[in-house]
Amino acid sequence: MSAIQLNVIKPSVNNMTARVFLRAAKLDFSENDVYGQTRSPEYLARAPSHLTPMIETADLPRGALWESCAIMQYLCNKHGLDDFYPREPEARAMIDSAMFYLIGTFYPYLARATYPALNFPLYAGEVGCSDADAATKEIARKAAVAALAEPLDVFRAFYIGDKPFIGGAKPSIADIRLAATLEFLAAIDYDLPDWAKTYMASIERTLGAAYAEPAADVRGYIAYVKSQRQ
Ligand SMILES: N[C@@H](CCC(=O)N[C@@H](CS)C(=O)NCC(=O)O)C(=O)O
Fold first, then answer.
1. Which of 84, 93, 180, 209 has its CA 20 to 30 A from that of 199?
2. Is residue 1 over pLDDT 90?
3. pLDDT of residue 127
4. Radius of gyration of the chain (CA)
5. Ligand 1 test: best mutation among 6, 13, 14, 129, most atoms within 8 Å of CB?
6. Cis upstream peptide for 164 (omega within 30°)
């Protein structure tokens, strides 16, 4: 058995993040597709959050770890993967800031904007999963689409700056997280700025099959939901 078990739902960009990273880092792992199983008593006993991606390894105090960014940080720390997660405190702080900003600010807008088109459930408490009427939900979704541009440009102007990637010359774990996240915008035909298209292509070119294989699952799912709309 591999040292690390990676539990995933393949159409998800949260999962794509961990799937790309474990491949790019060339870690010894096995991937388990747990689609439809995350609320089972057996999964909940191991991960009461019912979330994916989730890794399991005997080294962890509770045997399991979820949250895509925490998974990447832990595995970089554990395996000394400094190229993906620099050790120098200031460089590391920028990677951490970019990932917290993505999870805390950018992703909530992106989820509100894209999840209805992806047939994904929204987070509890969102207008989209309340009993508000369809018109009100669509107003909230459009507001989220409009809100995406500002934090997206912060990645360009502040985190990436004049370097190819947030991590500098090579993609860091924050770059993997951002590029995977942007994949979902194809579900709403979002007009991605040219810099973001170039950035995503650079990451895919640099990481090769480690990126392309998990991306194909996300892209395939988006193509499927779009085909169902016609
Ligand atoms: N912030 C988390 C989000 C994880 C998440 O929302 N996972 C969803 C798939 S996109 C999930 O596993 N849902 C299954 C469930 O809740 O039962 C991360 O980055 O890993």
1. 93
2. no
3. 76
4. 17
5. 14
6. no
In which band, very low, low, confident or very high, does the pLDDT at 125 lie, cut at 50, 70 and 90?
Answer: confident
φ and ψ at residue 84, rounded to 5 degrees: -90, -25
Whether 110 and 185 have beta carbons less than 8 Å apart is answered as: yes
Instruction: For each of the domains in the chain, give its residue range(s) and CATH number, in order of start.
Output: 4-79 (3.40.30.10), 89-229 (1.20.1050.10)
Q: In 10 A of CB 11, how many CB atoms?
A: 20
Over the stretch 30-89, which tens digit does the pLDDT of each residue have? Answer: 999 999 999 999 999 999 999 999 999 999 999 999 999 999 999 999 999 999 999 999
In the chain, the amino acid numbered 211 is Y
pLDDT of residue 143: 95
53, 18 contact by CB (below 8 A): yes
Nearest atom in ligand 1 to the alpha carbon of residue 38 is 17
Which letter, b or e, does each residue of 92-107 get, where b requires 16 or more Cβ atoms within 10 Å of its Cβ?
bebbeebbebbbeebb
